[in-house]
């Protein structure tokens, strides 16, 4: 039976070892540990290694199932590649669309708010720019054909010149009147306001006696509105009071001419034209 002292000494002796033997044991333990770690690493590597890799154009299995499997894998890779390219293309388009915003975009938004039908037609920026350029050319040409008032023709020659010497694109409306005939004075006053609203239409007035008309026409035919374009009569309205009465306003005359196709209804004019006309009026 060991004493307490033997136990203490024995435990000390049991746990005591020389420095040389300790080094040898440590080296041996480390060597064993490294060998064991290498074995575990190899096992882990073998276990997580994928069963197949990206298709390289050759098949590891030449049987029907292997060929089908390789073909399916190939199509999958092609689809993934196509999706990635499409995604990159969309990202590039979005980036360019954000960085290329210009005044044309703002103009298009403005038109979208005022005239959705026009905006739907002008989906192409090039088409919009082309139409704006053409509109500028047309307005530059018609700027010289701007009237805005009623021209008083004093002779028959002036009457003929006003029709024959005018640009073929201009609509000419001539009021034939007589003094002291019901409706003639109201028509002259109404045409003043209508002419202001339609500055690109040429409005004229002439006495029936000056134009060399018969007494019967001067009595039964006035007030009369004759409409010309390119030297040809396109409208002939005799004794207009049969339609409007003897007391009427400018809005009544305008509606009458629009109804018979002699004037263009401003409500039907595209926004791009009306905006340019307003800009031209403001500049003057």
UniProtKB/TrEMBL annotation:
**Keyword Phosphoprotein carried by entry:** yes
User: What CDD domains does the entry give?
Assistant: Phd_like_Phd
What ranges does the record give for the region Disordered, renumbered to this chain?
15-66
Segments spanning the bilayer are none
Q: Polar residues: which segments have biased composition?
A: 40-63
Q: Which UniProt keywords apply?
A: Phosphoprotein
Q: Which family does it belong to?
A: Belongs to the phosducin family.
Q: Which residue ranges have biased composition labelled Basic and acidic residues?
A: 30-39
What protein am I looking at? Phosducin-like protein
Q: Gene3D superfamilies recorded for this chain?
A: Glutaredoxin, Phosducin, domain 2
| InterPro entries, per the entry | Phosducin, Phosducin-like_reg, Phosducin_N_dom_sf, Phosducin_thioredoxin-like_dom, Thioredoxin-like_sf
